[in-house]
Design a protein that fits this description.
Layout lengths: L16 H18 L7 H13 L3 H13 L7 H13 L3 H17 L5 H17 L5 H9 L4 H20 L3
Helix pairs in contact: 1-2, 2-3, 3-4, 4-5, 5-6, 6-7, 6-8
Amino acid sequence: MFSPSPSDEPAPEQPNALEADLDAQNNRGVLHSIGAGFPQAFPIALECFRNAADQGHALAQNNLALMYSLGLGIPRDVAQATKWFRRSADQGDPAAQFNLGVQCIRESMEVLPDGGQEAQIEAFKWFQLAANQGYWKADVSRERVNLQMCQADVEEAMRRVAAFVGCKEKAPE
C-alpha cells in the first residue's frame, strides 16, 4: 500500500479548543450585532464579545471596542473603546490598528493645535501598521495625516512603527 512520504514542512496548526470556542463566541456576537440568523440583540452581542475579549481574542476586542465607540447597546464610552482597540491593536489586529488611528485623529481635532501633534504621530503609526498588513484605506488615511505633519513628526511616527514591529518580532510565541 502507498503511504505519503514525510514532508519537511510541519503540519498546519489546528486551533485548540479554547481558540475555537473564542472564535465561536466572537462569531455569535457578530451574528447578534447584525441580526443575521439571530434576532439583532446588542446585549447578547456585547456579552459574547466581552467573554472572548476578556480571554484575549483580538477580533472580539476590536468588536467590543466598536460597540463602545458607536454606543451600540451601551452608552458611548470613548475611554473603553480606546482600551479595547489598543488591546487588539497591540496583538497586531489591522482593523483595531486602523480604528485606533481614527480615534487618534478625532483626538487631534478636539485638542488645542499644539496638543494635536502627539495624537497625529500616534494616528500615523497605527495607520502605517494597518497599511503594512494591507488594511483597506489605511494607506490613504495615513497620507491624509502625513499632509498635516512636519518631517520630524513623520520620522518619529516611523520610529514608533519600527519599535512596535521590532517588539512583536522579539515576543515569545
